[in-house]
Amino acid sequence: MLTFEKAKIYVGGARVKREKPLTLVDVAGARAYIRQYWDHLVRYNPKDEGSMIGLPYPYLVPSKGEGREFDFDEMFYWDSYFMVQSLFDEDHRDLILGMLDNLVFMFKRFRVIPNSSQYYMIGRSQPPFLTSLILDIDRHYHMDKKWLKARMAVAEEEYQMVWMSQHKPYVHQVYRGLSRYYDYNYLNDIAEAESGWDMTPRFQRKALNFLPVDLNALLFKYESDFAKHYRGLGDWEAAGKWEAAAESRKSTMNELMWDKSKGLYYDYDYTRRRKGPVASLAAYYPMWAGMVTDTQAAYLVESLKRFENKGGLATTDYSPSLQFSSVPTQWAYPNGWAPLHFIVMIALERYGYHHEARRIATKWLKTNLEWFNKNGVFLEKYNVVSPDKPPIKGLYPSQVGFGWTNAVFERFCQDYIDRPV
């Protein structure tokens, strides 16, 4: 029987070899590059122009792309959450608060936070991190109650009007109180784009049929965050309502998505009443959100062996079917992505798996660093199976820069190098 303590020492039945630590000297050049690169990613577009939505405050874009097919000028929803994770200092306070208020502005204007600040993106959103961003800001900058109350009220509206809606334009809640990714045009591939995982084998090209484990864990996080918020306001009735909603979602997710024999959560195909076939790092969102038991956490840590490779965590485990996909699936083996490494590291740290978090974070840092030292750039994604080779391409050209890669690299340096064991 797998126990909580054993999983902290063993992975796949073998004692884990610790990664050789990186030093401050090793990462100094890369961190200096990242610090100066942020200025290249700041945009300020206060007025509507063409397809661009005007936003009241400056913001970060994912990549600097002059002369490239993808030259970003728009603000993206979930990219923004990850890009600020290493910037919570006084120098970036106004930028971070402004980025949050840009998201709030778009919701108030369009009743949805679009995929990005482009008019043609209003038909879909992206993974909802609004409460997490609000509470991260509050924790770092100690905002007053009026500020917090106003923004949590917007998040509550977003939760109800977008993610729990059963009617057009955003038909997300479809089965037993759980939600799916969606697109106003009712197209599977664009609904898959709302997941941020464009493209992935997780949904078998039928994203509208699946209840994603990551989305519903994010909504559990919303419900838990609302409960905590109302407890802070002394509104015990509202807090109780949100606690009950979170417990209900957790119970349903465990019933439909948890596979004890495999030690993972899986997306659920509600049209066929069965779990999806693809094991992915989305399984670790429930652990990140704090909704798993210690026993489930131990199983999830044991299952990391499905994803862990020389260069870090692959987005999915290996499947021969990936070779025959009709669409390039960049959110899959052998690629690894910074935001998913961040989610998994927070999940591991939350449940006390500090050695595992440090080991995997070090692998990821080395992959990023070795590519930077050789090529002088950071990438949006990496080949974690063969870190010296380029990542597998997706539907759009591979991007360099890159906002969330830079942020997670710096954040891991702060957590695992600036603060050694």
Q: Assign a percent range to the helix content.
A: 40-55%
Q: Uncertain runs with pLDDT below 50, 5 residues or more?
A: 1-14
Shape: globular
Most strands sheet: 3 strands, antiparallel
Tell me the total number of β-strands.
17
What structural class do helix, strand and pairing data support? mainly alpha
Query: Number of helix segments?
Result: 14
Approximately what portion of the residues adopt beta-strand conformation? 5-15%
Mean pLDDT level: 93
Q: Give, in spatial order, the strands making up the sheet with the most strands.
A: 7-10-11
How many angstroms does the end-to-end distance come to? 30 Å
Backbone CA Rg: 20 Å
Q: How would you describe this protein?
A:
The protein is built from 14 helices and 17 strands. Helix 12 packs parallel to helix 14. It has 421 residues and is mostly helical. It has a domain at 1-43 and 307-421. The strands form eight sheets. The chain has a three-stranded antiparallel beta sheet with strand order 7-10-11.
